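Morning run. Coffee first, then this:
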Amino acid sequence: MKRSPSDLKQEILRLTREYSALMHTANRPGAENAAPFIPGETTVPYAGRVFTEDEVEAAVGSTLDFWLTLGPEGAAFEQELAGFLGVKHTLLVNSGSSANLVAFAALTTHKLPPHKRIQPGDEVITVAAGFPTTVAPIIQCGAVPVFIDNDPNTGNACVDQLDAAFVAGKTKAVMMAHTLGNPFDLGAVIEFCRKHDLWLIEDNCDALGCTYSMPIERAAALGFKENSPGIPADGTHITRYTGTWGDISTQSFYPPHHLTMGEGGAVNIIHRPPLKSYAESFRDWGRDCWCASGIDNTCGKRFDWQLGQLPKGYDHKYIYSHLGYNLKPLDPQAAIGRQQLKKLPAFIEARKQNWDYLRAGLADLEDFITFSLPTHATGWSPDGFIWDATDCRVDCSWFGFMLRVKQSAPFTHTDLGRHLDAKKIGNRMLFGGNLLRQPAFVQLQKDRPEALRIATPLAGADEIMNTAIFLGTYPGLSKAMLDYEIETIRQFVRSK
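And here it is:
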């Protein structure tokens, strides 16, 4: 009897799940059902893909449908992620770096009022230590990054330096990341941006699921009256996810991040709907048309436009208002992302628990190591964090566990990193360290000194570069792995 395509597909997907359950046990949350962990032999990655047969089935199912280019799965994922965060719109792109490029480019459009449009030579305040593609789009679009320092304790910007970086008539935006899943001081940054009518671009690539809380009165004065979806009200604070406080924000779905599509990213339009069409144009070749792929004449006047010097009635699907890119992901990637999004709350909780476990396990090494603190925290104890007087709080969905080796220690962060690597424990320095020390930026200053500006001394960024490394907190870590990390570090320190 001839089998129907539907029956065949269901059988393929059943076998796909069976195959994945057998082959990908090491990628399950907490490495459940994985092969026994053998200290010194089994690698402990700093990050990695965490998935079940759900994601594999979704990818195969979407591929069997063979839409391939961004389509129905992508549209659904965009709606679901926007709904989770509580933003107006989400646009999928092919990486977090592309998300930063598209988000920034959207603010350069000629469709914005002149005083809001970022044009070549305009300045954008950012922070010195971090990942290069937080800064690169500023330069790539012809604007000038203005660097302030990092607080080594949080990894985030020294917000008391914002005023020193500001130049009336030239500063147009602030663009910075929430470092390693630790929200920067959003209260201070938003107040600064409101005071000077600046854009705020949140690089949320390391921080999906983090929250920031501020007192209701302060939040209301800045225009915020509601929590993000799913966050219960406490009657005294407004609590929102990071990536929902500024004007536009970005996500990365590269495997080390909070959820993955393989490669992939997103641009979140937080509260200004017109930014969607601008960002979408830069993502989609620079075209003026907003029809989705495979759909024609959404505007109802496809052959009635007259733009530029084109003849009236020129096909709107081939009118280009920007010098754009093609930065869309594939629909099977979005199908994977939709399954990952269902697991996101559990992933977030696992990252918090893993950070807490490492912090408690290494607590007696404070003579040699300085541990990171969440923004607005002034100290840590086994009972929790001690908070400052602002009454602002953060709840971190940690991307990593950063520590800094004290200058008085009889070893360096490189020594520690090398030892961990030899013991098969994944570790990383804080991305590019002080970016101004990187070859690309050193060369840029030689070739075009006017292309960037350093507003303050960068001692904190240098300290991070010279002393900091981080371990993983991702949901694939088992308790045995965490215990091995803790014991390896403790033995290394005791041997010095």
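The chain has 14 helices and 16 strands. Good start to the day.
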